[in-house]
Design a protein that fits this description.
Elements (H helix, E strand, L loop, with lengths): L10 H4 L5 E5 L2 E4 L4 E3 L3 H4 L8 H13 L11 H11 L6 E6 L2 H19 L6 E5 L8 H5 L4 H4 L11 E2 L4 E2 L5 H4 L5 H11 L3 E6 L3 E2 L5 E3 L1 H13 L3 E5 L23 E4 L11 E6 H6 L20 H16 L2 H23 L2 E7 L2 E6 L9 H12 L9 E4 L7 H19 L1
Parallel strand pairs: 5-6, 5-8, 8-11, 11-12
Antiparallel strand pairs: 1-2, 2-3, 4-13, 7-10, 9-10, 12-13, 14-15, 15-16
Helix pairs in contact: 3-12, 4-12, 13-15, 14-15
Bound molecules: pyridoxal-5'-phosphate.
The site of pyridoxal-5'-phosphate (PLP) has 16 residues, from helix 5.
Amino acid sequence: MLFHPCSQMKDHEQFPPLEIVRAEGPYLYTADRRRLIDPISSWWCKSLGHGHPRIRAAVAAQAERFEHVILAGTVNRTIAELTEHLAALLPGKRRVFYGGDGSTAVEIALKMAVHAMIIRGETKRTRFMALENGYHGETALTLAVSDLGIYKEPYRALAPDYPMLTGIPYCSGVDDPLFADCGAAWPTLEAQLEREKETLCALIVEPVVQGAGGMLIYSADLLRRLRVWTAQNGIYLIADEIMTGFYRTGTQLAVDHAGITPDLVCLSKGLTAGWAAMSAVVLSGELYDLFYADYGTGRDFLHSNTYAGNALAAAAALEAQKIYDDEKIAGRVAATAPVLRRLMQEVATETKLLTNVRGIGMIAAADIKPEFIKAPRTGYRVYRRAVELGALLRPLGNTIYWLPPLNISLETLEELKEITTRALNETLG
Ligand SMILES: Cc1ncc(COP(=O)(O)O)c(C=O)c1O
């Protein structure tokens, strides 16, 4: 009866879905008594692994008080404390608006930006610009600002055609000189921005790493330059930190690599450490002030999601934020990230099947060399073999990547390396 997300159901004739009966830390346990590593943190959200006991207790305690109450016109201590924490992620006066999932947060940010332009009287500025290979969600508008044909193609008629910035200075990580200086690439990028600026309301980016596009890392200097350019031209900068937020790239937010403050920041996934659907948009005080007026004067932001600020999700999120501090997750990431990257390099060296090894924080990736991509769906075949061997590796096309829980142990990473190596060798070698 189930229609699985992001799947061709016919594939299950050959390869049935795994029946999960339990999940703990970095591991999934199946009904047929197998244990699999979850090296992609269940679509990038289980930042503290599965079943963290403190979050379980916080959610249970909240359930004893109440599980959900409409957020319009109400407040509670959990959401108030969480909001204070999120507002403090960025300097200056900030406000926090809650949504249901990641795509919704991006829609909220896009709607706020366009609405703010109307309030400012800049009614010609209705268009968005985004980066090539970017991904921002699955709703019609978030697909419109995404650049991934396979997800977007059938729905092109639903959404406007927005310009994509091309020639992004991609690099291998923070130690690549390009990460700190992309001056040589900037003139052609700036020329594209200048061509569009009269009608632009906002530029949206996944800061530093583009996830669904293939774990592509780009220069933090580009972010700095985009921040300066957007500010000079009165255009909003939206940072989609849905995958990167909360230490995934080594810093609390990925924009911290560039030391910039966007106008709007979208958060989800690591916000609740993957415990519940929740997203938040952190916006600047200037933007908030535009919406503060007498009712009915065109300045009311009337977006609503039933589960905005859901109390169980908020309890999970608040506890997750405390755990990031108490368990010194930033320090753990700093210690583990070089190992993650080294192990991916070892897979590439030992198998001779991978190229373009890259990594930042707790993300490591490499591409299958073109000469080994002889049949369609090569990455999918690697996935099937890896699952049989004990890791839910889900390559993005022909990109092999790891994005494990931030607190994964070195032993589990070694095990993951062995499984990835075998899956590649046995599929392609
Ligand atoms: C950068 C980015 N933006 C938006 C989304 C969409 O989030 P959701 O799947 O919760 O709608 C994702 C999901 O992977 C993402 O990686």
